[in-house]
Amino acid sequence: MAKVTVTLDADLVIEVMLLSGTKNPQDAVELIVRDYLARGRRTEARTGGAEDPNRVREAEPPRQEG
Fold first, then answer.
1. Which of 40, 18, 13 is nearest to 29 (CA)?
2. Distance from CA of residue 34 to its chain's centroid?
3. pTM above 0.70, yes or no
4. Is 20 within 8 Å of 32 (Cβ atoms)?
5. From first to last of its 66 residues, what are the pLDDT tens digits of the chain?
6. How far apart are alpha carbons 14 and 43 in whole angstroms?
7. Extents of the domains making up the chain
8. Could you give the CA distance from residue 3 to residue 16 in angstroms, rounded to a whole number?
């Protein structure tokens, strides 16, 4: 896997480290990014993908019986 170097503000990294509970800034940022991606996949699995035609279609009102 390719590696990328990103420069971030120290305050931002410290906040990320506190949220993730890690002592290594690189690990903290990686955990946050992985969690963000996983949440996006879970949301897409629940709501459907952007190309899903039923996603934006309005639901039909329930039919009355009787």
1. 13
2. 8
3. no
4. yes
5. 888 888 999 999 999 999 889 999 999 989 888 888 888 776 666 666 666 666 556 667 777 886
6. 28
7. 12-46
8. 20
